[in-house]
Amino acid sequence: MCKNHSRLGIFVNETRYKSPLIYNSLTERKFKDIQSKIIYFKKIEADHTLEKIFDLSGRKTKVWEYKRVRIVDYQKMQIETTRLPCAYFPELEEEEVKKSVHEYVQQCGYQISHFVTTYSAINVSKEDADLLNCKKGVAAMKIFNRGIQQNGTVFEYSEMINLDYSVSYFTPFNPYSHQYRKN
Question: Which residues contact 182 (CB under 8 A, 6 or more apart)?
Fold first, then answer.
């Protein structure tokens, strides 16, 4: 029989309920401490996948695509390839891409609601290893990210490769999921 230890344990600040991200090895850094080296910045024709992601309904439209390397403490830590619909951001310039794109999105009057993020472990390709100054085959984290506005539309789709990446979340216990998994 377990004893009730209600007075023992770890205190969790109430703000964790509003933002489950506790720690991310890159985004914990201040913007001023992260440099971006732009590999390219261009307009491309949206393919079928991007049409679906951005709900462009089969309309052949342009999207911005940029690739940048994120540098922290003089170390290349991340390769990011991001796409944004040109219709939302017709004035986007490379100078904005060097800074916080999410700050730019907000300055354009869009309200960011949340992100849908997927993680998977990978081994770095030769091409990515050359960009990150590391050995081919080094373990890394591949992250797919969709930025969602308050109105439910996707404003951003990113693919990132991170070296030395760790993340921690606050996850409430879900008794329904737990019960389901028992059966």
Answer: none
pLDDT < 70 regions, the chain: 1-33, 58-60, 169
Q: Which domain, by its residues, includes 64?
A: 14-182
φ, ψ (nearest 5 deg) of residue 140 = -150, 175
Q: Give residue 16's pLDDT.
A: 42
- Contact assessment for residue 50 and residue 63, using Cβ atoms and an 8 Å cutoff: yes
CATH of the domain at 102: 3.40.1410.10
Residue 79, burial from CB neighbour count under 10 angstroms (0-12, 13-18, 19+): buried
Answer yes or no: are the C-beta atoms of 99 and 32 closer than 8 Å. Answer: no
Number of domains forming the structure of the chain: 1
Would you say residue 61 lies in a domain?
yes
